[in-house]
C-alpha cells in the first residue's frame, strides 16, 4: 500500500466518508488508546477546525442570530460542505446560502463578501494621474472597470449599519433599507463605501461595460459626477486599464 493511499484512507475515515482500515494503525506506545479512539481525535479535531474557521468570519452574524441558532447553521454547513482546498481562507463564504432570507442573510452576505474581497487577487487602481492628457471625448467613452477585489451591493435592509455598530461595540438593530454599498480592497485593506442610490446606479452600469456617457442617464447624476469621480479615484474604485 502506498503512502498516498494510506493518507487517502485516513482522510476518508476522519471525515466520515469511508470506513477506516484499522490495519493501518500501529499500536500506540503502551497501547493506551485503541485505533478507533485515536482516529476519533482526527475526526473530531477536523470538524471543530472547520466550524472554527466558519465562525471566525461571521462575528456580527453570530451576535445577531444568537449563539444557538448560529451554531446550528454552522453545524449544517460544515456537515454539507467538504473542504476542497489546501487552506480554509475561502471555505466559509458559502454560509449565506443556508441562512433564511431577510436581515440575517443580508448580514451573512456582507460578511462573506468582506472575506472574498480580502482574498481576491489584487489589481492596480486607476488614479487621477492616469487621466492626465485624456481629452473630454476620450474620457466620456472610457471604460471604468471596478477593481478585481470588489463587490457591489444593494441590500433591502441595513446590514452595513449593523456591522459598523457591532464592530464599535454598540448595540444595534438591522433596520429597513435599502442600503447601497461597494466593498473594495485598496491599500491592502478592505473598505466598505456607502453609496448614494444614483451613484450605485451609475457604478452598476459601468460594471456592465457601459461607458461613462451611457451610464450618466439623468441631470442629477451629471451634477453629482465631479464629487463621485474624485472619491472613486482617491479610494481606488477602478482597475487601471
Structure explained in plain terms:
The protein is mostly helical and 241 residues long. It has a domain at 100-234. It is built from ten helices and three strands; from the N terminus they run ααααααβαββααα. The protein has helices at 3-14, 35-56, 59-65, 67-80, 103-119, 136-141, 159-167, 197-207, 212-215, 219-234; strands at 150-157, 176-186, 189-194. A three-stranded antiparallel beta sheet has the order 1-2-3. The chain is elongated, with a radius of gyration of 24 Å.
Key structural traits:
mainly alpha, 49% helix, 10 helices, elongated
Describe this structure in a few short sentences:
This protein is mainly alpha-helical. The chain contains 10 helices and 3 strands, in the order ααααααβαββααα.
Q: How large is the radius of gyration?
A: 24 Å
Q: Assess the beta-strand content as a share of residues.
A: 5-15%
**How many strands, which pairing sense, and closed or not: the largest β-sheet?**
3 strands, antiparallel
What is the residue-averaged pLDDT?
90
User: Distance between termini?
Assistant: 53 Å
| Sequence of strands across the biggest β-sheet | 1-2-3
| Strand segment tally | 3
Shape: elongated
How much helix, percentage-wise, in residues?
A: 40-55%
Low-confidence runs = none
> What class do helices, strands and sheet pairing give?
mainly alpha
Number of helices: 10
Order of helices and strands: HHHHHHEHEEHHH
Amino acid at each position: 500500500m502506498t503512502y498516498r493511499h494510506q493518507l487517502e484512507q485516513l482522510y476518508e475515515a476522519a471525515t466520515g466518508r469511508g470506513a477506516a482500515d484499522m490495519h493501518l494503525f500501529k499500536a500506540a506506545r503502551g497501547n493506551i488508546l485503541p485505533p478507533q479512539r485515536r482516529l476519533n481525535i482526527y475526526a473530531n479535531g477536523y470538524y471543530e477546525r472547520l466550524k472554527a474557521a466558519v465562525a471566525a468570519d461571521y462575528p456580527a452574524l453570530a451576535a445577531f442570530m444568537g449563539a444557538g441558532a448560529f451554531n446550528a447553521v454552522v453545524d449544517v454547513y460544515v456537515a454539507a460542505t467538504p473542504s476542497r482546498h489546501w487552506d480554509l481562507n475561502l471555505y466559509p463564504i458559502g454560509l449565506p446560502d443556508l441562512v433564511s432570507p431577510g436581515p440575517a442573510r443580508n448580514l451573512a452576505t456582507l460578511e462573506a463578501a468582506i472575506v472574498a474581497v480580502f482574498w481576491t487577487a489584487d489589481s492596480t487602481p486607476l488614479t487621477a494621474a492616469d487621466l492626465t492628457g485624456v481629452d473630454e471625448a476620450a474620457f466620456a467613452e472610457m471604460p471604468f472597470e471596478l477593481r478585481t477585489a470588489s463587490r457591489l451591493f444593494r441590500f433591502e435592509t441595513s446590514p452595513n449599519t449593523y456591522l459598523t455598530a457591532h464592530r464599535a461595540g454598540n448595540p444595534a438593530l438591522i433596520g429597513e433599507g435599502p442600503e447601497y454599498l461597494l466593498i473594495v480592497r485598496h491599500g491592502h485593506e478592505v473598505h466598505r463605501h456607502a453609496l448614494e442610490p444614483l451613484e450605485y446606479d451609475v457604478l452598476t452600469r459601468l460594471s456592465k461595460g457601459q461607458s461613462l456617457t451611457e451610464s450618466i442617464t439623468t441631470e442629477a447624476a451629471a451634477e453629482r459626477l465631479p464629487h463621485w469621480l474624485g472619491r472613486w479615484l482617491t479610494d481606488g474604485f477602478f482597475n487601471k486599464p
